[in-house]
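MODEL INPUT / OUTPUT PAIR
PAIR INDEX: 1
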Amino acid sequence: MSSPTPPPSWYSLATALVTVVAVAIAIIPIYCPPTADPWYLPILVAGPCVATITFLDLRLYTFMGLATVTSTWMGLGVGMLIHFIFDVASGGQYNRLWAALLLCPYTFLSSLGMPAAKSKLGRFTLSALVSAFSYVPVAFYAADAYTEAWVTGLAVTFGAVVPWVVLLIFKTLGLIPSPGQPMTKRLPFAAADFFDLLTGYFICARDHNNAIQAQADDFNEVCHAAAKQKIPARLSAVFWNMAGELFSLKDCLLTQELEPGIIAYVWKPLAADFSVLRSEVGIVLRKTARGVPEEADRDLSGRIASCEQLMVDVISDVSRKAVEGSISPPSSTAVVQFYSAVGSILYIAGLTEKYRLAAVAEKEEEERERQEKRDK
């Protein structure tokens, strides 16, 4: 049975309300066309469609709006150029299929901006729009390619500008709610919760697959939200490393159950020390999230070293017993899985201490900057 879905937050409801207002304004030209012969009404639908992509972060929306408008006009401009070149070259005998083929080299180039290509081209353009809108004046027009391309561009521009104006008005009036805790607090809290769950279900993770997947989805949602915001570089570098390791630990534990021999002969002698380490990691992350990283020094480095030494001793003892024949040696697959999982736990603990130290340095720098401003 999966975990219940939490109700939408006030911030989400406010986002929906602002989006409704923006779409309602963007749809006005469709119901009140500016000319007597509104042949272009189907094209104007692009405006409300673009307006549905609204979020309450004005700075981020400004960037996305500019990228949307720029990418749309870039695609339409190239499409009109291709239409003109082919029309002149063919002596007025325009063929949409051959014109679309002529556009292929351009669409190949623009596709390099797709996320999968990992190209710098995707940093300032929306490749999907650059590629798709170029086909409007080349192949997907009804009668007049140039006029329809201009109407499409104006509709998209209008649909992108309306939400920006609505957001600006709402922000000026103080009607945009806070999204909640700052991301520098949400991230370590979410990481602590995810780590607690994974290590708590260490030997029976597959029996609690739904709970782990639900927690992973929550953590992933926080990570997606963090990706849209500016986080101090020294914190960001450590956290994303930690996030990747948490997901690796989840995948490792859910791949297959740990073998009974591994649990009995290896994990049980380690469980007490790793349980303490788990608790200390949670304390460090949560105190750091509360803004007091200097009070969260729990000597994680010493505990990690102690756990590593204990693990070496236990493995040596198990290997000796296996050679003597007093126990059955575990399979190589089980050993690799266990080493991977325990290694992830120790690595996450080390990253937690790095995150705490980075938070201490960040806090000291902020206090120093505030002091310098007061001195001026």
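PAIR INDEX: 2
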Amino acid sequence: MDTYVRAQKLEKRKAAGRHIPKKQRQFADNINMELYQHNIELTIDKVVENYNNQIEKAATADFSNYGIEIIDYIKDKASKMVYKVTKTMAKDRAINLMEEVGIPEPRKRYKQYPFQFSGGMRQRVVIAIALSANPDILICDEPTTALDVTIQAQILELINELKRERQLTVIFITHDLGVVANVADRIAVMYAGKIVEYGTSEDVFYSPAHPYTWALLSSMPDLDTKDKLEAIPGTPPDMLFPPKGDAFAVRNKYALKIDFEEMPPFFDISPTHKAATWLLHPDAPKVEPPKIILDRIERMQRNGGVNNG
């Protein structure tokens, strides 16, 4: 499970059952998030990668179907809130949610069983479950993994539509930069459990500053070129025994001596863009992004967007 999700679980355990006023909650590397609700668990919900386990675990255990699972989830959420929900109210809510996430004939299909749903429809059910408590923040942890390209696009469009209509903040955790380009307004690039670059989508795709971001973009498939994809050398560090200095240093061909000795702080590139790399220090030698990155940026500018590069 990703570092960010683990941090959220820790925050939930700390906050359970006590009042949290509007305030800044600090997460990794001084990136702050405001929480407005009286309980983090009611503010944040998540859509996880393994939708099969999330739904079918209950379905196989007690022979429930999708609709009942949603009802049970809604009632569980409601029990932690100030109002009570009857089974009839929960059923109506479940059917409305299934309709909202694009499941056809919800009054008929809520009675069906998990094996009767496709992978894409199962993921829509998971999204409906996550929406059942009306969260302000929706965490999507690899929600398109194991789905084909067409279904991926449909799920991404659904999440974007829900974000607009419900005024949701969506935290999208993914290794797929193509997905990032489709959904993100702001991007935090993480390596070894730490944020190494943060900025708007335009900042990160058009002006990447951290060598790890360069490496990720260099390994991103591009239909407009026959160039060989770049691989990131080496393997991620064992965080049980974290390395001294910058965790990416041993895999970074642009690493400076200080990278092996001291973790770099964040350097401001613009009011919206920052990166934790010693290459941004005023005394560091000037290093340009690799040619493959500069060529990609040029194509994106020429073709009119991140997804056209």
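PAIR 2 NOTE: The beta strands are 23-26, 32-35, 44-47, 137-141, 169-173, 186-191, 194-200, 267-270, 273-275.
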